[in-house]
Design goal:
alpha/beta; binds guanine; nine-stranded parallel beta sheet; single chain; binds zinc ion; 2 domains; Urease, subunit C, domain 1; disordered N terminus
């Protein structure tokens, strides 16, 4: 299927503009804010972002201009860890990760042997991303190659920038979900050749987690990651203490859970590790030294009782951080609600996260973690025009609170703590409107 066309010729949007050029935790001047701003796009890319008064004269006559005055335009959110096949089982209760996997996750993922089901769920999942302002996600499919085709077909048809991969899993799971060491990696190579860099699609080699891949599969997956260094790699690490004990029993000679992945050559740029709660100081240093990235999954970690991500330790080690929903362990598709819970998790660990930092982590922080800075995540000239329109008047309470905020920081806090899909007035991908709240 050919992707939907991007709009040609310049197009302009008037609103307050916010985007980031650096991490607010590291630099004072990390963000660019234009209260009365103008965003100009052309051929699906950012042409300019700045003050309306300065830029309006640069527009050729008859340039279409959409007036979003009173609203905020920010880069599209980036969700660096989520599972599309778990959409229909979101909010499934269980006493912890391992029983949750056995009771709900594996039976749900079994249904993805049916390509019609795959297409139906992929389409609904992508609709949810867009109505929540998420324009890029790193997505787990299931063990079935058809589940990957269904996801990429749905994403490519809408010309979205998405990353996804086939789950590799050849042991310690029900037989109906097992691949084999060689078969799983062969299928992954076929999918890389079919989808990686096909339009805006990118492939992630996806061993589910160390307990469900044999040594042989881990070895082959690591070799595949080295053979295709510009692909992504995604997996789970150090999420839950029962999982940690299980990994210790499976790999008694490994220094740590993370060390299992390092032994198989999986720590590298474009490797995204979900959770990273129960890491130690050596692990954190290895994450930073290898440019491996972390997907912080706050709603999931609270829902499954997994633990609290340690921001102070992660920042001290200079780890590369990003935010993620981890649907369906996570309880919301909304990156605003994910910011809300991330803020509280950090608070409980003694770290006060600013709203600016939360918005950075959900935009440029994600892009940097994925080595996609300059492509997505901010409004630098030439970047892809993936952006969203936030509405501070979305609900009576949000409107009332927003009207009484005294600073950008307070306004962003109100959006992060009170906002959800209702606060996303519109979502644009490659310069094209892919969600308009008024049309729903
Ligand atoms: N660890 C292994 N598989 C999964 C999964 O599907 N979700 C979460 N949250 N953790 C996992
Ligand atoms: Zn996950």
């Amino acid at each position: 299927m050919t992707p939907a066309p991007t709009s040609a010729g310049p197009t302009a949007y008037r609103a307050s503009l916010l985007h980031f050029t650096a991490d607010p935790a590291q630099t004072q001047h990390a963000h660019d804010w234009h209260e009365d701003g103008l965003l100009i796009t052309e051929n699906g890319h950012i042409k300019a972002a700045g003050d309306y008064a300065k830029l309006k004269h640069t527009l050729p006559p008859d340039t279409p201009l959409t007036d979003y005055s009173g609203k905020l335009i920010v880069p599209g959110f980036i969700d660096t860890h989520t599972h599309y096949p778990q959409t229909d089982m979101i909010t499934s209760p269980a006493p912890g990760l391992l029983p949750w996997l056995q009771t709900y996750t594996f039976p749900t993922e079994r249904q993805f042997s049916d390509p019609l089901h795959d297409a139906d769920v992929a389409s609904f999942f992508i609709d949810q991303l867009l109505r929540n302002g998420t324009t890029t996600a790193m997505v787990y499919c299931t063990v079935h190659p058809a589940s990957v085709d269904a996801f990429f077909e749905a994403s490519h048809a809408r010309n979205l920038r998405m990353v996804a991969g086939k789950v590799l899993m050849d042991r310690n799971c029900p037989e109906f979900l097992q691949d084999t060491a060689e078969g799983g990696v062969r299928d992954s190579a076929t999918l890389i050749n079919k989808w990686h860099k096909h339009g805006r699609q990118l492939y992630a080699i996806t061993p589910r987690f160390a307990p469900t891949s044999s040594d042989a599969q881990m070895q082959l997956a690591g070799e595949l990651a080295q053979a295709y260094p510009d692909t992504y790699l995604q997996t789970h690490v150090a999420e839950n203490t029962d999982e940690l004990a299980w990994v210790k029993s499976l790999y008694p000679s490994a220094r740590s859970y993370l060390d299992v992945y390092e032994r198989f050559g999986m720590l590298r740029p474009r490797a995204m590790f979900g959770h990273c709660i129960w890491l130690d100081a050596v692990d954190r240093a290895r994450m930073a030294a290898t440019q491996s990235a972390t997907a912080i999954c706050a709603t999931s970690n609270l829902f499954l009782g997994s633990g609290l991500f340690d921001f102070a330790a992660a920042d001290a080690a200079q780890m590369s951080l990003s935010l993620a929903t981890d649907v369906g362990g996570g309880t919301s598709f909304s990156m605003l609600q994910t910011m809300n819970e991330t803020y509280k998790v950090a608070c409980l660990g003694g770290t006060h996260l600013s709203a600016l930092r939360l918005f950075y982590l959900a935009t440029l922080g994600g892009a940097r973690s994925m080595q996609l800075e300059g492509t997505i995540g901010n409004f630098q000239s030439g970047a892809e025009a993936d952006f969203i329109v936030l509405d501070p008047q979305a609900t009576p309470l949000l409107g009332r609170r927003s009207a009484r905020t005294d600073s950008l920081e307070e306004l962003l806090f109100a959006l992060a703590i009170l906002g959800d899909d209702r606060a996303i007035a519109a979502t644009y991908s490659a310069g094209r409107c892919v969600h308009n709240r008024e049309d729903q």
